[in-house]
């Protein structure tokens, strides 16, 4: 097999913010490392694809690289192609990669379509919005020996990886009380969010709180046992109503509590690109332990001559940890950070699965792919349906709770995990 055939072709469905800010640059870098072959991006219409193709920062970082746009860039910006992704996925060679980067409520149909067409999948978080759907995804993927990764990139932050190892070694004691927050900038309200971030679809806890819920689970292994989420509603500039703020309490199986505050309201003029962090108090024998992550101000401050910082600011806290384009030893720039590490870990896992089974006959290859996928599930670093389904249970419970003004919703495990209101 030549290099091109060994490399995985990638179809990205969705050409919005996360594709621009993380996924496309990561996939371009993997392409020049030989892991990725052809790249196709399918969006609802041509407008975001044109913006991606013309993004000067991306062009300068990845000279000579490009993608196939579906619909073509020459199509009128206002013409929508809601089902084109099906054709694009159907046209892909079997067992390549589909990256799902559409709004939360469309993850499920796109992920299932990709699996039905024998594609490995990387889905931005949250995988799906209902537990039953995760089970379906997991089952179909395992039947066909396909990898499904969920892009919970905070797991790849070095501080989280450190905390996970040391928590397991007993260095902190047992998690008992904590608080997390992630407040995205106010200007998000002016973006495409206003079209889909409505009260009936999602809320700040489901959208971003899930990162810290997943992280506390990643570090401690504790199952969330109940959730209560209260929201504050407001209007987007286009008049649609959304939950603009939320506060959640998550109760864990050992009785621990985590408070999670989220919103679309970090001041545009303030120095961070958002406000975020995690504080966990733990109990040990006759003393307590603590894990404290300031995920907003990571100690690097820039003041630019022009308004080129996040949200058009001159003075910024700059995180070198999530995603940055930096100089490297070859032409252009390379993406570094836990965002890149997370995308690379899933795509490289798919490539490894294909590499290690390429020489086997079909039934043996299928069995081996399943074995490799079970190994990734058990290692528990990359989020997969099998090792991160607590997130779907939490999301499901959260939606029940926030629409009932903060009523507690229990999460029940066992043979048939499900959620139910307390009263
Ligand atoms: N930190 C994170 O992990 C993080 C950050 C941002 C977004 N996300 C997730 O990424 C997803 C997308 O968010 P975003 O901010 O990029 O949204 P966005 O609104 O900027 O972009 C959504 C994209 O989906 C495309 N789309 C919608 N319907 C489609 C269809 N039928 N076929 C093809 N494309 C379609 C649109 O054309 C658009 O390009 C969401 O699930 C969000 O939760 C994750």
Description:
The chain is an alpha/beta fold. The protein contains 14 helices and 18 strands. It has helices at residues 3-6, 17-32, 46-54, 56-61, 84-90, 107-116, 131-144, 158-168, 193-196, 204-220, 338-357, 362-379, 385-388, 390-402, and strands spanning 8-13, 36-42, 68-70, 97-100, 120-124, 148-151, 174-185, 224-235, 241-252, 257-266, 275-284, 287-294, 301-303, 315-317, 324-327, 333-336, 409-412, 418-421. The strands form 4 sheets. It has an 8-stranded mixed beta sheet with strand order 12-11-7-10-9-8-17-18. It has a 6-stranded parallel beta sheet with strand order 3-2-1-4-5-6, sandwiched between helices. Strands 13-14 form a two-stranded antiparallel ribbon. Helix 6 (107-116) packs parallel to helix 7 (131-144) and helix 10 runs antiparallel to helix 14 (390-402). The longest helix is centred in the last third of the chain and has 20 residues, at 338-357. The radius of gyration is 21 Å and the shape is globular. The mean pLDDT is 96. Bound molecules: nicotinamide-adenine-dinucleotide. The site of nicotinamide-adenine-dinucleotide has 24 residues, from helix 2.
Blueprint (SSEs and pairs):
Elements: H1 3-6, E1 8-13, H2 17-32, E2 36-42, H3 46-54, H4 56-61, E3 68-70, H5 84-90, E4 97-100, H6 107-116, E5 120-124, H7 131-144, E6 148-151, H8 158-168, E7 174-185, H9 193-196, H10 204-220, E8 224-235, E9 241-252, E10 257-266, E11 275-284, E12 287-294, E13 301-303, E14 315-317, E15 324-327, E16 333-336, H11 338-357, H12 362-379, H13 385-388, H14 390-402, E17 409-412, E18 418-421
Parallel strand pairs: 1-2, 1-4, 2-3, 4-5, 5-6, 7-10
Antiparallel strand pairs: 7-11, 8-9, 8-17, 9-10, 11-12, 13-14, 15-16, 17-18
Helix pairs in contact: 2-11, 6-7, 8-10, 10-14, 11-12
The protein binds nicotinamide-adenine-dinucleotide (NAD).
